[in-house]
Specification:
By secondary structure, the chain is mostly helical. The chain has a single domain, classed as Up-down Bundle (Four Helix Bundle (Hemerythrin (Met), subunit A)), CATH 1.20.120. It is built from 6 helices and no strands. The longest helix is centred in the N-terminal third of the chain and has 45 residues. The protein is elongated and about 55 Å long. The chain starts with 10 loop residues before the first helix and ends with a helix.
Amino acid sequence: MPSSEQPKPDGRFARALDDARAKAIELRIEAPLRIAMSLSLLGEHMAAARRRIADLHSPLVNNGDRVDALAMDYLVIVQNTLDLSFTIVQWNELGRPQSHAECFRLLAQNGFIDEAIVKPLAILARTRLDIARGHLTLQGDAFLASLPTALTVFDRFAEGVSSWFGGDT
């Protein structure tokens, strides 16, 4: 076969290639919208968590439902942070992180977030499983005491992503 002739892919390969191209185009269009929606949801749940913290006037052992509601807000905050991180890394083709910590490092290395919050974010990301298993609500007072610091870290994350994205938090 002359060198100018390229072998033609069979139908299955051509369809897969077309599907991959369409998905890449779809990702380029959808990613900014997903990022904006996730930032909005992140802000809503951080505000709700702060309201719930302010509403807790009696000891947590008497406020199990409120602590559970706080834990659910916190779970959404953590999950949105993880989703945003991986969406930005994928959209900007920064690499293929194998962990949440690696994803946060890639964001910091590329100027999306402050390097100082990489380690705290990685630690906070691990709490997702504790929430899902109900462990945080069993730790009542300790969980509540840790929330203001955690929310500050998530605020810094949201501010970094928002400023990259061209908006305000």
